[in-house]
């Protein structure tokens, strides 16, 4: 779940053992997203997917970190098409062929958090939508690669932004880069310092150190970057109705390089 822009304060440093505890939480999240992805087909409601997610998380002995968070009513955020983030699962939101579905999921296991998001193609989606999702995922991977000790926080931001711009040029279309929402520190809480912008000049912000953990999560649109929050107080949509994608991983910063904690298997 993305954080809104805020000031930097103290940053939690984890031990190797604590990273292992976060990895266990991350595996729960990865397995949950895999179960949701398998079930996400035309005719299935986003509420159905939420039920699958909660059952999977609780069966692992974990707790959904989104459910009840500042009043959020579900275990996943399910954002369809023009919805960027924080979409609320609903029985009336029935997936159709050609939809784009971004699923954000968090879990708490033994007091440690994992947080990850994927964008799923429902049935046969357009080539443009496939490219948008690929560009968003590539931006996330570029940000992860920049998460190394000695770098500055906005080196990640700049890597995300540069990757998105490179994809935009290669695809021959403008991608909107969401700036109001971004990544965040994570560990004993879901949203911790620092806020991680998805755009920015390099060499700014706190110096990255081994033991830090960040949720790196770019959001791109197929049009304008202007956003609107709906009356439900959660769902954020594109102002121009263009489609949006969201990809996220929880990443540990280590002396051996970035370690993604929300993959099904270590790579």
Automatic annotation (TrEMBL):
Positions of the Peptidase M24 domain: 20-255
Reactions the enzyme catalyzes: Release of N-terminal amino acids, preferentially methionine, from peptides and arylamides
Keyword field: Aminopeptidase, Hydrolase, Metal-binding, Protease
Function: Removes the N-terminal methionine from nascent proteins. The N-terminal methionine is often cleaved when the second residue in the primary sequence is small and uncharged (Met-Ala-, Cys, Gly, Pro, Ser, Thr, or Val). Requires deformylation of the N(alpha)-formylated initiator methionine before it can be hydrolyzed.
Family designation: Belongs to the peptidase M24A family. Methionine aminopeptidase type 1 subfamily.
Subunit and interaction comment: Monomer.
Protein's UniProt name: Methionine aminopeptidase
């Amino acid at each position: 779940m993305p954080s809104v822009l805020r000031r930097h304060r103290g940053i939690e440093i984890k031990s190797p053992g604590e990273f292992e505890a976060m990895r266990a939480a991350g595996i729960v999240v990865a397995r949950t997203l895999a179960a949701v992805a398998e079930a996400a087909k035309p005719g299935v409601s986003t509420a159905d997917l939420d039920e699958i997610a909660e059952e999977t998380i609780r069966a692992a002995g974990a707790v959904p970190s989104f459910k009840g968070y500042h009043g959020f009513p579900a275990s996943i955020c399910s954002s369809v098409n023009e919805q960027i983030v924080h979409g609320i699962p609903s029985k009336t939101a029935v997936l159709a062929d050609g939809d784009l579905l971004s699923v954000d999921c968090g879990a708490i296991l033994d007091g440690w958090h994992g947080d990850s998001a994927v964008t799923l193609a429902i049935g046969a989606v357009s080539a443009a939508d496939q490219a948008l999702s690929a560009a968003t995922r590539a931006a996330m991977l570029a940000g992860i690669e920049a998460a190394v000790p000695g770098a500055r926080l906005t080196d990640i931001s700049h890597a995300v932004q540069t990757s998105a711009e490179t994809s935009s040029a290669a695809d021959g279309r403008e991608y909107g880069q969401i700036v109001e929402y971004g990544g965040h520190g994570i560990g004993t809480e879901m949203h911790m310092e620092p806020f991680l912008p998805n755009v920015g000049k390099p060499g700014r912000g706190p110096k990255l150190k081994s033991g830090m953990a960040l949720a790196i999560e770019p959001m791109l649109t197929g049009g304008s970057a202007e956003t609107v929050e709906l009356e439900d107080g959660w769902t954020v949509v594109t102002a121009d109705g263009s489609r949006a994608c969201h990809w996220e991983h929880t990443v540990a910063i280590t002396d051996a390089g970035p370690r993604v904690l929300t993959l099904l298997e270590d790579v």
